[in-house]
Specification:
Elements (H helix, E strand, L loop, with lengths): L2 H9 L6 E6 L3 E6 L4 E6 L1 H6 L9 H28 L3
Antiparallel strand pairs: 1-2, 2-3
C-alpha cells in the first residue's frame, strides 16, 4: 500500500487487525492486533543452512537443530518488537 492509501483508510476510521511481516527475509509471520504471532514460517534459505545431525538416534534429535534455529529467530523477533514498542513516535 502506498502512504496515500494508508492515510485514506485511517481517515475513514479503518484499523489494521493483522499485519504480515517478513523479518530480515528469514522468518515470515502475521502479527495480530493482540500482539500474537501467527503463521510463523522459516525461509527456505534458512532451513537449507541448518546443519543436520548425522545418524540421529531419534526424531527429537533429528529436529533439534531446527528447534534451535527457530528459538534463536523468535528471540530476535521478540527483541525487535520490544524495541519498536519502546521507540518514541
Amino acid at each position: 500500500m502506498q502512504s496515500d492509501e494508508v492515510a485514506t483508510l485511517i481517515n475513514h476510521g479503518k484499523k489494521c487487525l493483522e499485519l504480515s511481516i517478513s523479518y530480515l527475509q528469514r522468518v515470515s509471520f502475521r502479527l495480530t492486533s493482540t500482539c500474537q504471532l501467527k503463521g510463523i514460517k522459516l525461509s527456505d534459505d534458512l532451513i537449507a543452512d541448518v546443519a543436520e545431525i548425522e545418524d540421529p538416534q531419534s526424531r527429537v534429535e533429528e529436529l533439534e537443530p531446527f528447534w534451535e534455529v527457530m528459538c534463536s529467530e523468535l528471540t530476535s523477533i521478540y527483541q525487535w518488537l520490544d524495541e519498536l514498542q519502546n521507540k518514541p513516535v
